[in-house]
Design a protein that fits this description.
28% helix, 12 helices, homodimer, 24% strand, 373 residues, nine-stranded mixed sheet, five-stranded mixed sheet, alpha/beta
């Protein structure tokens, strides 16, 4: 275990903060930050802003210029070793004459993990790995999941009254949640690679499923000008070909990926119950469309299927301070359970007020491990 | 507005902390704390522990002894002016030769409010009122409400899954919430003047509705020995005379107050729908039984009635990280609403994790003011 100094810790913390500035724009690339120091002075720093643009190390090395000779570089992720849209960052660090590199974590892609570090070591650079690793992982849960499993990270958004109703019996629901909660949803949408819904929901709400820059929090807008706005892809499950060009969905320019079993941008099989294969949908979105992170906004039926197929990484549930009565529309529909052992369990990671609503972030527990308990 | 010094603030903060130590035992009396100082030294302090035992001022004056001559007394509530089970505290302070009294708030009972202060002033003692008033009020919300309105402070406890189900369709529900949440309930029960439920719930669960000392938090047990445990009264709505002596309810010694329209400890009218009059029940409990604070544990039907009649001061809702499906038993039953304007709104005062569950504390908004919005 390498020994890190308090100064090392301070510099990596700074690199992680820098990396976070790319959170709305880097998709499908990871968020990465880099700080370059000479002695106890920062001589360069930078972060990755947008796919196709320079990596964090390139920005930091440009800023450091000649001062990078003999310097220490702090990088939140192992420098890349491959020629992509930009030359490998490991080579850039070598050419700049850096003498030490501290990375928070290795590349999560098993195909290249460790190669960048090896390249640096082969060039005589001292490399240490693991400083603030868990914070660095938290920068890119979706990117890491896709690299390691081939599947995207899926967040399921739901909203209900505190008694679990998403609408009255007659379908009326506007508005259950507060303006602040709806703005909070925009903030989540803006960080996703894709927003997924069903043609039914899109038609019922005539939803555009775009990020509305105006509704982002002020603290975000300050550093994220409207002209730079990245729109996630809209992925719509549309087995019955209900989508039509007059929908608000098609009024905005960001891509719409229709999912169906034929003649669609994403073609998947239909399962025994006549439903589009959700697991295959996600795998295809990850593999063919490089989508790391999917934000799902849909109704009870899709939500229930996603939970039952264990495809949800996080449930983001907004609960409005309202009581609607049990005769409204329930969050996840009927489950037909007869024993408490069958109940789906979750682990609540976060619970806070957003405006006047409560927001819970909960991780569904694997059904396998639950049965063992 | 009197000027208070930082030292005054520190002493009253101390008096409020002392007052809190009585929170399990003083009912139906208020929590009160007192600190007596000479210059910048504390010479006496105390708090009210149990109805019938000495008031806070008496303990503090005993401790101060001769040092109370010319001293300043900080009291969280106006000293009493009447001869009850103990002589009036205002007289005690006068006889002890105290030269200044600072009270956080006046007595909330409109019949005696200001009399204690007048008694002190008539004896030549300097009196100031209002230091940390809102903290002092927070010590005794239930006592204050009863004194000012004649009605008790009512907390309604409910527990459900995050999708609003209290049980599966077949009635199975053990256990929805975690052990920590159930301990948290014990902590609430222990502070109430009465625990209210229905004979149906008592019979279904064979519930004893007592405080189980073992289940109180360790931090409470440390300062609250089992021998001192105060058991709240159990108030059971039993219109159909279902209660019988074999129930666990009757195995413990604390009083059971049956509520019915005849032959009961609490006799109230039956309303047009054949239900016991809940408002009259509460008013009687406050007036005849000196109950300030009622903790309600019951099912959907009573919960709904209490909310509709606007008798709930706080909803304490435990939400377990479980999804049970909308075909279980809903929190408050059917409401038959057809418009979002009809939905009952609340104000969430607190939201936190208790063990693995979420606990919300929410105040129902007046239905009148809601209609005006």
């Amino acid at each position: 275990m390498p020994k890190f100094t308090p100064f090392d810790l301070q510099m990596m913390t700074r690199a992680i903060k820098l990396a976070q500035k790319g959170r709305f724009t880097t998709a499908p690339n990871p968020n990465v930050g880099c700080v370059i120091t000479q002695g106890e002075s920062i001589v360069g720093e930078g972060f990755h802003y947008r796919a196709g643009e320079p990596h964090a190390e390139v920005h930091a090395l440009r800023m450091a210029g000649e001062s990078s000779r003999g310097a220490t570089a702090y990088v939140t992720l192992e420098p890349c070793s491959h020629y992509g849209r930009t030359p490998p960052c490991a080579e850039g660090l070598i050419n700049a004459g850096v003498s030490k590199v501290i990375c928070a974590m290795q590349d999560p892609n098993p195909q290249v993990s460790g190669r960048g570090i090896q390249m640096l070591r082969d060039a005589g650079i001292e490399v240490e790995v693991g400083l603030l690793k868990s914070d660095a992982k938290a920068l890119n849960p979706a990117f890491i999941k896709r690299m390691q499993t081939g599947m995207p990270f899926v967040q399921l958004k739901m909203a209900a009254s505190i008694d679990g109703q998403t609408a009255l019996a007659n379908g009326k629901s506007q508005w259950i949640t507060s303006k602040q909660a709806r703005q909070n949803v925009q903030n989540y949408r803006a960080q996703a690679g894709a927003i997924l819904s069903t043609s039914q929901t899109v038609i019922d709400d005539n939803a555009s499923l775009t990020v509305r820059w105006n509704e982002l929090p002020e603290s975000v807008k300050e550093h994220y000008p409207e002209a730079e706005l990245r729109q996630p892809a809209r992925v719509i499950l549309d087995r019955q070909s209900k989508l039509h060009p007059q929908l608000a969905l098609y009024a905005s320019h960001s891509p719409v990926l229709r999912v169906s079993n034929e003649n669609a941008e994403v073609t998947v099989e239909v399962n025994q119950s006549g439903q589009l294969d959700l697991r295959q949908t996600f795998a295809t979105l990850a593999k063919t469309h490089n989508i790391n992170h999917i934000w799902v906004e849909a109704g009870a039926t899709l939500a229930k299927s996603l939970l039952e197929e264990q495809l949800v990484d996080e449930l983001v549930l907004y609960l409005a301070p309202k009581i609607m009565g049990s005769d409204g529309r329930g969050l996840f529909g009927a489950f037909g359970l007869t024993d408490m052992q069958q109940v789906l369990e979750l682990d609540i990671k976060d619970c806070r007020l957003v405006g006047s609503d409560v927001r819970l972030v909960a991780v569904p527990m694997p059904i396998e491990s639950k049965r063992k308990d």
